[in-house]
Here is the input.
Amino acid sequence: MSEGTKRPFSVREIREEFPALRQLIYNKNLIYFDNGATSQKPKIVLDAINMYYSKDNANIHRGVHFMSQKATTEYEASRITIQKYINAKKSEEIIFTKGTTDGINLVAYSFGELLSAGDEIIITAMEHHSNIVPWQMLCQRKGLKLRVVPINKKGELIMSEYDNMLNSKTKLVAVTHISNTLGTINPVKEMGAKAHAVGAKILVDGAQSIQHMSIDVKDMDCDFFVFSGHKVFGPTGIGVLYGKEAILDSMPPYQGGGDMISKVTFERTTYNELPFKFEAGTPHIAGGICLGKAFEFLSSLDMVAIQKYEKELAEYAQDMLDTFEGCRIIGEAKNKTSVVSFVMEGIHPFDIGTLLDKQGIAVRTGHHCTQPLMDFFGIPGTVRASFAFYNTREEVDKFIEAVEKSINMLK
Ligand SMILES: *Cc1c(COP(=O)(O)O)cnc(C)c1O
Here is the structure.
């Protein structure tokens, strides 16, 4: 975590900084409970987007002129803000990507080049499709074996099965830090230590954790940590892959093009240093700069207080939903946060979502890009309410009333 004074957590004050929250949907006050899909943006990010394109717009890393140098300085300053926020050793370990999906594909391709037939990769039963499919593609390409850690009915990993799967052929464990569908918080530090004990690396999908808890990659001792900017109050189209320097150094480039080279001839090309080796082409400059602003904003907040607040909010919502007859909560892990997924007996999730929408409430319905998880629970999908620190208890009360009204209409 970066140093500096944290302001005491006040949901009223925080809401002031998110203009999107102050709008009417079908003439009702918006209640935004779809933060697992994407987050709203604070003023500091919105102002930075406007400022960049109205004044500072220039390409980076190559111009001699004032604007190019200013854009480069800001883009690189943002990398350092993020490095400090997640407590990475060096800014070279922060690779800008398009998002979580892009970061995982980068690792699957590039780290995958170092693997050979017979090697094993471990994922879990609760992964998002973007932490399943790239590994399947790699396994097909290289003749590797993909193994899946099962879960119990509460939506927790069965750790004894994980222990049994680890062996000298295991090369990588790829696991989500927090499940986007269940809210389960996985013991990634412990899983990493066990992976390291057999010589394997661990990739942590942080798409659902970076916005809900303080992240310290050194303490977690993960080899890779990936997340998306848009879920952590920044723009879409930008994200981060953190990787330990020595491992990133050992990996071949993912894409070829400008910026990732140090010298090109038709006979031979030598590659640039980290992080540029993995950043071919003109990047999402505004995205990188504005993601830095999102992290400046987060740095001023007390994440410990926020984590507690969000957990209480989710528990409150879950306890209220649980009182409805025919309601089944999907995901009852002991260690969970920020997400409540449920199904109502005899009612399709989509119908509840549609009626909630008409009452100004944004939730997600469907499989949440976790189809194997839906198969495990024997359901087509869920209604998912996912919270951020700008949500309130009053909003949860209105949501519960609206769910009740919806059920009564559909019964
Ligand atoms: C959203 C999400 C992803 C994919 O993120 P993109 O921004 O779509 O690339 C991956 N894993 C988890 C757990 C997610 O919630």
Summary: The two ends are 49 Å apart (CA to CA). The chain has a mean pLDDT of 97. Residues 95 and 241 are 5 Å apart (CA to CA).
